[in-house]
Amino acid sequence: MACIPGALPFAFDFDPASTALIVIDMQRDFVEPGGFGASLGNDVTRLQAIIPTVAALIQAARNAGLPVIHTRECHKPDLSDLPPAKRDRGSPSLRIGDPGPMGRILIAGEPGADIIPELAPLPAEIVLDKPGKGAFYATPLADHLARLGVRSLIFAGVTTEVCVQTTMREANDRGFACLLAEDATESYFPAFKAAAVKMIRAQGGIVGWTAFTAEIATALKGGAE
Ligand code: C5J
Question: Ligand 1 — pocket residues by CB below 6 A?
Fold first, then answer.
């Protein structure tokens, strides 16, 4: 067993043998200029700032033998998994599926949908394409976690209040103990990130726990922070 004593709202006990790291949507479309995030008028530099921390967390997980699962929010090239209700919102000038500087916006197989090279998955790691904000919806994530015997999940990635929080809530409802790496997640809106982090750990950890990457890495190495 491992423990992160400084986790909030209280110490997070977990068994590394049944824990996985989920890295949400660290894609060029969200993190680089010219992608989906930027098309909505967002400043992507906020998201770029967490790249080294996410890389450190991924390395700590790999060193400890945890499965690392990467997700990508994207749609099929024929848009058959893109409901009009989703396509018709966002930027009217650059919608999902439209050609952009990194290929068609948020479309599987296009350069913009790729995970950023700094955080490239290893060949054996699971990479899931998801058409929704949550990573359980219309994906085999639940099957992978059951096959791997995972009971606890550590979360990183973007954006905190959209895809990260949605997936944590989905996981929480499915009975997983969920920990968010607070400094390995980011939002285009600092106030939204702060609110999401507070919501997750409010009311006795109604969605889960939060902790910092250094604390998680220490626990994964077998020590207590
Ligand atoms: C958004 C995401 N924000 N990955 N997607 O549309 O959070």
Answer: 25, 30, 73, 133, 158-159, 162-163
Contact in structure between 2 and 219 (CB atoms under 8 Å)? yes
Distance (Å, whole) CA 129 – CA 152: 21
pLDDT tens-place string over residues 135-178: 999 999 999 999 999 999 999 999 999 999 999 999 999 999 99
Cα 66 to Cα 33, 49, 75, distances in angstroms: 32, 24, 28
Residues with active-site annotation: 25, 130, 163
Task: Give pLDDT tens digits for 31-79.
Answer: 999 899 998 999 999 999 999 999 999 999 999 999 999 999 999 999 9
Fold exhibited by the domain 17-223 = Rossmann fold (3.40.50)
Cα 49 to the chain's mean position, in Å? 15
Give start and end residues of each alpha helix (H) in the chain. 28-31, 36-39, 45-48, 51-63, 84-87, 141-148, 165-173, 190-205, 213-220
pTM of structure: 0.97
- Dist. CA 87 → ligand 1 center (Å): 14
Cβ proximity of 91 and 40 under 8 Å: yes
CB neighbours of 147 closer than 8 A, spacing ≥ 6?
none
* Residue 24 Cα: closest atom of ligand 1: 4
Q: In this structure, are residues 219 and 7 in contact, taking their beta carbons and an 8 Å threshold? A: no
